[in-house]
Amino acid sequence: MRRRVAVVGAGITLFRRRMLETPKELSFEASKMALDSAGLTLKDIQSVVSGSAPDAFDGVHMKGEYYLDGMGAIGKPHERVYVGGGTGVFTPIGGWWNVASGMYDTCLCVAEEKMSPLHPHPQYAFWSIFDQILERPLGTTLLWIFSLEMRRYMHKYGIKEEEIAEVAVKNKGNAIDHPSAQLGARITVSDVMNSEPICSPVKRLDVSPPSDGAAAVVLVSENVAKKLTDEPVWLDGVGWTLDTMHWTNRDLAYPEYVEKAAKMAYRMAGIKNPRKEIDVAEPYDPFDYKELHHLEGLQLAGKGEAPKMTVDGVTQRDGDLPVCPSGGLLGVGNPIAAAGMMKICELFWQLRGEAGKRQVKKDARTGVAQAWGDLMQVGTVAVMRS
Amino acid sequence: MGRPNAGRDGRSDEVLEGEQEMSQKITSYPGHEITSDELKEGKYLDVYYKFVPRYSWAAGVAISRFLDELKNGRIVARKCNRCERILVPPRMYCEQCYRPTDEWVQIKDTGTVNTFSISHVGTDARRLKTPILVAVVDIDGASPGMGILHNLGEVEPSKIWIGMKVQAVWKQPSDRQGAITDIRYFKPVVP
Fold it and tell me: In chain A, what residues touch B30 (CB-CB under 8 Å)?
């Protein structure tokens, strides 16, 4: 029988373009903060799940083994999980298996990323995610799939670039209140529209930055949670699915794999009407249109309807469905795996009413976090409740 | 702000003892940024290494045939007789029916732009002098929505539209190598 799993602590480092700390040091800082906030020490931890995106960023093979010390995983059952950009939310899902299965009562989940080592630009590593026979010879960059998907999404539902830009304005604005944030800023829709075209329709301010950083949470069984705190946040639903690598054969206007992952997580959490029951959402927003895409996949907006919701202010912190109150990847930064985990940390703080200036106005009791990645084919979803 | 009973007030005293609070109660976040200027000044030590690996990838059963046919100026697909889909890029198994595909089918070298982009950056994110036009082209003769990634050419960026009919522009037969680049690009079909 499945056991209930609680989040009892969270920790995060600064997110910056280039950090002095090594992956081990970043992992240590985030993990220590998470343990301290849970009132636990490493001795209390029975297993460790780690997440980090492609080894190509670091140029360190066996990264899971390399950063082990910083994650407090020496001599403990440790697994590194990986689904590209979806890794950050997949890491606590991995932790959930450890605890829900009854194997362990306490599990430290750490996500770390350093993108800065790769020169001349971290983007270069993404070249190798494309098919090596049919796609790489065409001179691919990761931005292509985003721009192709964004254009298809706009075309199918008649969405304007200005509507999409509202997401960047909101998230970078929200990030001003996040102590870790790399790119918090007050910008306008015309700033986004006038920013340098990179891969049209994608412009500079539509995109999240490359970053270094780490984030961590502590998961425990119900019995342990009750001893530690009167205010646990429950990890009540998890879901993940992948679609085919044949991305040019898919409907790019709608992320079906996110829908499947979300429905799996909602079913587990007993959520029947997500739009009514979810109080706060942290969907993956490496690009502004992706937040909209994912809100639709998460069943929080009808197909093609997320832009209007955004323009109407529904997704603001004081709106009916606050979305990315953290500031998201667009504002806080995008150290790939750590960025997804940052969303889990944010829900933990939001659902405990501890998010300070970032706290959403409504009484938030149920939240959903989601990450996305690989060759635009994976959705990882977590439902949390206080 | 937030839920009135959440946070510190709702928690037991014994847990509060000596515990570091999170989020709004944390005043400093760990980590040291290295700025671009500091990097240029060489303020921090780092180690530089250039890794030059070489690979040779076998193209596989399905794609070897596909590439071989490109050399002949033809695009081929595989058909699954159960779901009746005509698959391109071709595969020897149908991932939906999970059974071997049944036959090779020659499809056309024309198609429809499913989506497109004008890329101002190259593989390493450096700015390009001449932008690359890139598209997913749904190939005529394959099942609906069966597209491939390729480049567009002989067209003004502002004149590209979703739904535009395009046709392959092939390299000269003597220049073909059995590669996806044997098709130089797709250009608009002039009616």
Answer: 13-14, 21, 29-30, 33
Domains of chain A: 5-120+209-385 (3.40.47.10)
Provide the domain limits for residue B74: 61-188
Nearest beta carbon to residue A20 from set B20, B34, B95: B34
Residue A81 and residue A36 in contact, taking contact as beta carbons nearer than 8 Å: no
**Nearest CA of chain A to the CA of B123: how many Å?**
5
B10 located within any domain: no
Roughly what angle, to the nearest 10 degrees, separates helices A161-175 and A288-297?
A: 100
ipTM topping 0.90? yes
What percent of chain A has a predicted confidence (pLDDT) above 70? 100
User: Which amino acid makes up residue B55?
Assistant: Y
| Confidence band, pLDDT 50/70/90 cuts, at residue B27 | low
In-domain check, residue B115? yes
Gap between the Cα atoms of B136 and B117, Å rounded = 9
Strand partners, B166: B111, B188
Q: State the CB neighbour count (10 A cutoff) for residue B61.
A: 12
Q: Write the DSSP string, B86-141.
A: EESS--SEETTTTEE--EEEEE-SEEEEEEEEEEEE-TTSPEEEEEEEEEEEEETT
- Say yes or no: A1 contacts chain B, CB-CB below 8 A: no
Total count of residues recorded for chain B:
191
pLDDT at B132 over 90: yes
- Specify the pTM: 0.93
Identify the CA nearest to A248 among candidates B149, B125, B130.
B149
Neighbours of B158 (CB within 10 A): 7
How many structural domains are present in chain B? 1
